[in-house]
Amino acid sequence: MNVQIQDPVFAEMAAATERALWDGLPELSGREKALLCLVADICQQTLGTPFERHVRLAYDNGLSPDDLRELLRFISYDSGYPAAASALDRLTALERDLGVSPTGAGHEVNAHGTGSPLPPAMLQSVRDLDEGFADYMALQSRMRAGMQMLDVRERAFATMTVDVLFQTLEESFSAHIGRALGAGATPNQLRAVIRFSALFGMTKAWRALIVLNNLLNNLAPNPTPDPQPAGASGE
């Protein structure tokens, strides 16, 4: 990623980390890794040099300005709207500096409709906790239901990373793991997502791997290990 760091010892540590997590995880594509870096920047509000580097990296891996704006819209649900709005301001400034611009493509925001794409049992469990919060969750899920620039697997990996960073490793983490598996991700790819998140906090990733393995064991008491992927993208 051509990281320019003034401290030579820190630069050596960063380079070794990059080899381990960027070059050493063939289960994930470069596009997916760039998206997950941006998710972490939004959640942790690292909107200076790291965010600029990751935006450039995203463009280098085939993501468009419209794709990045959809990521911000999508992740606002979990990162919180203020954090996503700050990232949008920074992204807009970078677009000007880099001479790129989004086309304005988006999706229909169903803010005034009814219903929710969430599983009924999940929504009912939330409604049993608090009626108003269930209505808010239904609204948020409904407003982003029409997004199509990022695929289901990418969105699931993004929300898994949010769970690791915020340590929300119960209901939401289980739902996002299920969504990733439903989109065709393998257990090895799920573990790779968590290992990659160690870049943003190793002890958080450690705890998430414990929870992930428990979830996978409950889904398949005697799981067969995935074969190692032959290609570099893992897709």
UniProtKB/TrEMBL annotation:
Pfam families: CMD (PF02627). GO terms for molecular function: peroxiredoxin activity. Residues 13-89, 143-212 form the Carboxymuconolactone decarboxylase-like domain. PANTHER family: 4-CARBOXYMUCONOLACTONE DECARBOXYLASE FAMILY PROTEIN, CARBOXYMUCONOLACTONE DECARBOXYLASE-LIKE DOMAIN-CONTAINING PROTEIN. This is Carboxymuconolactone decarboxylase family protein.
